[in-house]
Amino acid sequence: MSPRPLGRRIAAASSGLIIALSLAACTTHPSPEVAVRSFLLAWQDGNHAEAARHTTGDPEEVERALTDVHDQLDLASVRFDLGRISTEGESANAEFGVTADLGIGDPVWNYTGQMSLTNGPTGWLIDWSPSVIHPDLSEGERLAVSYEIEDRGQILDRSGEPLVSADSVTAFGVLPADMEDKEAGVTELAELLDEDPDPLLNRVRSAPPEQFQPLVLMRDADSNLLREAGSISGVETQEVEVNLSPRAAPFVLGEVAGTSEHRVSSRVAGSYQAGDTVGLSGLQNIFQQELAGTATTQVVSLGEDGDQTDVLESWEGVRSGGIETTLDLATQQAAQNATEAMPGDGYLVAVDTTNGEVLAAANASGSAADDAAFTGSYAPGGTFTMVSALAALESGTVTADSAMPCGFQSEVGDQVFTNPSNGFLAENPTLVRNMTYMCTVGFVDVAPEVGADALAEAAGQLGLGADWQLPLPVSPGTVEIADGDAELASAMIGDHGVQVSPLSMALAAGAVADGSWHGPTLVREEGPSPANANELSEAHLEVVREGLRDAVTIRMPEVNVGEEQVYGQAARVEQDDTALHWFVGYQGDVAFAVLAEVDPEMSQWQQYAVTAATSFLNGLANGVPETDGVPGTEETLPPAVPGAEGQGIEGEGVEGQGVGTDLSGN
Q: Other C-beta atoms within 10 Å of 125: how many?
């Protein structure tokens, strides 16, 4: 519903009545047509006193009646078109077209009016009665605009579970009939609630006086505020339930305005009226029309007692409805719970490996404004080796059985690359062993043979940098490899030229699991991303999967939670003075990516992404206990323990091995 524009005036349209200036000065009307034109032109211009002179009614009563019509409808403008006039002796009847603009976003009311005229001593005059305003209006009746507001719809998870909780809020409003001075009373209420009074007044002016008009919604209104509001003439409060607060994934679902603390009247542009609810962000904003619907608007007639006597015109609104997402509430709760003990910003995104549907998207902050799980741009570090491994196989540089040496360090161009663990692999290791023990030097050494084109192609096959989108902003990642051997070697291990989001890495892991990449979906009715699925070589994927499985089994056995096997890779990389802890992998039909942003000074003893991944999988297997507020706050992450270097940071390899030792312990 729409706020009325400020500072309205009744505007005469150039296409409306055209009348010679001399006629306006006439004191008598030699014909019915002149009388009708003079009356309608004055009414159209808002000169109600002049219009009253052309009628048989009491001038003050007619002027007041015409002025009341504009207030009762809160008109933005009114225009008249002269119709057929029939004359019989000293009597006449005239038809005229009415175009009444009820305001920005509100409908335009078109109807045909009629008036009778009588020729007397001063010429032709309009026989005054309320039916001149509208043919169905009788003595003692007045006009009003009635709104039937839709309840805000629900956002649902994939099983139909509601994701937005119904909050009890206080609706501050007025009963217009009980107000001694509408403008003064509404202005006083607006000042008390720190709101703009004009949108509130616009709603009250045209409302049926005997109907409660909710104007401002407020959560947790204190008793003093309620008492002060109640002291204003005509002000009432009612407790109502509105779907406002996200139960999970706040940055995905978004915020809903309409409460005093959001100041919707000043923050949100559009056709909304005081008391409406408006989505400010997330799916609440994208699907505002579907969730809020639109009010059914009616122009009604009211009797002297304020009861409705007739509906003169009606515009059916759009019913509000639910939005079905692909999110799974249980998976979302496990994801949110897993991020809560992260020491800083952190994210977890889970997708269905079979179709790309987003199952969960969580951030450690719990903020509706923190959408980096979808839009972030991060270096993936060693987790990118699943892409590099696929590129090495696809290019023919290595095979499943060929040797892939892993030395202690390698110098490429002007850059020296060293394994995170400061170790090496002996006895002609394979690609799988390089993945298992995170031997980045092995990938660096084969970079020239793989080539930039093959690496970029493999990344594209796993959806990184592909053309896909969701209803919300997203980053599909970028793989832009600059010329130079060092740049290519750096890109092979997820550093130079490679930027990803947690969502894009979860989708890449899903492609490895399923055998083809699927564009993501978040809202069922929107369908999947337009990007086509990529069919991948099953033989090559089996090699990559073996490396991911062995990496979990040997370096991160604590992640083995649940009945199904877990596949994944963990890594640590620095970006902008921040240590990024990653875990990317899958279990069954759930692929996920975890990212923790950590102060480098505190990351020695714990790989926070691995710990969060363990918590997440435990939540999937065993459930997460509900708590007050955001679900999943009772479970805590396991404590940090010495020897976590075996998880892939600060001395990666088997626990206790130092510089220059065989990573595999041989």
A: 21
